[in-house]
Amino acid sequence: MKQAEKKDIILRYLYEKRDDNQDYNLNEILVSQGVETNPTEVARLASDLKKDHYIELKDLSSVLKKARINGKGIDYCESDSYSNKGQGIVYNYHINNSPQANIIVNSNRVSINQKQHDKAESILAEIRKKLLEDESLDLQFKQEVMECLAEIKDGLTNKKAPKYAIKSLLSLVGDTASITGLALSLAKIFGFG
Question: How far are the Cα atoms of 52, 141, 143, 144 from residue 136, in angstroms, in the given order?
Fold first, then answer.
């Protein structure tokens, strides 16, 4: 994963917690999002975000970096991102319910309609079924894929395109013939394939 994507993950997390008056461990944020990291990288990311004036950093040790987002960081999240310049890290939606779909207005990045949602749910179920049936697959591999599927399901439930979870799923399944095609179909539903 690129450094820019990791900064976006940190900022998105801090943005979601912006009003609770707490500082959050940057390493724990990345780990909770399934991102492998190390203390050197966390220190570099923290330094960059502080230098850009997006966070208030508590540099407690060479390993422990805690932060909270500041006003400039909130503005940045709503209008820009490190990995997708000109597009906000967070999505502010106005959702109108209709019998056939949830229509997301005022968003140029994501819309998940009922047809996409249903198709994605169907593909997720099919991937789960293939995982359970294929005895040649390693148990650890199955667990990791199931975790990705759970993250994707959460994204669907929250009406957010699960970009990082889908990228993780694609890299995990790689050349697993029984699942790769399904994962690619899932990515295409959200415009990532």
Answer: 48, 11, 14, 15
